[in-house]
Amino acid sequence: MNIFCTPLYEQQLKIILEKQSKEDFEATKKFKLYLDTILINLPTKANKYKKAQLFDDEDIKEIPHEGFNILFFIDKISGNYLILSILAKS
């Protein structure tokens, strides 16, 4: 069981962190640390997250985190998790 991130997620996260760090570097560090904790614990907590509203697929879920939704896919065949993107809540 592994957790992988798409290039899209990594690009979006980089933009978010760069913008936030200009405003409050310490808050940005806490945001990233907590986000990493959520992702590391994903295999044991995946079932607690709801199905993503943008997709009609039970295997694509979203994690709410400080005004953002992190979309991830559960690959039931391989047992892996794929972090798809991070989007600002609308």
Features of the shown structure:
41% helix, 3 helices, 4-stranded mixed beta sheet, 29% strand, alpha+beta, 90 residues
Overview of the structural elements:
This protein has 90 residues and is of the alpha+beta class. It contains three helices and four strands. The protein has helices at 7-23, 25-40, 42-45; strands at residues 3-5, 60-65, 68-75, 80-88. A four-stranded mixed beta sheet has the order 1-4-3-2. A hairpin with a 4-residue loop joins β3 (68-75) and β4 (80-88). α1 runs antiparallel to α2. The longest helix has 17 residues, at 7-23. The N and C termini lie far apart (32 Å). The model has no long low-confidence stretch (mean pLDDT 93).
Give the gist of this structure.
The protein is built from three helices and four strands. It is α+β, with helices and mostly antiparallel strands and 90 residues long.
List the helices and strands and how they pair.
Blueprint: E1 3-5, H1 7-23, H2 25-40, H3 42-45, E2 60-65, E3 68-75, E4 80-88
Parallel strand pairs: 1-4
Antiparallel strand pairs: 2-3, 3-4
Helix pairs in contact: 1-2
Average per-residue pLDDT, rounded, comes to 93
Order of helices and strands: EHHHEEE
User: Globular, elongated, flat, extended or rod-shaped: what is the shape?
Assistant: globular
Number of strands: 4
What is the CA-atom radius of gyration, in angstroms? 13 Å
Low-confidence stretches: none
Distance between the termini: 32 Å
Biggest sheet details = 4 strands, mixed
Strand content: 25-35%
Largest sheet strand order: 1-4-3-2
Helix content: 40-55%
Number of H- or I-type helical stretches = 3
Structural class computed from helices and strand pairing: alpha+beta
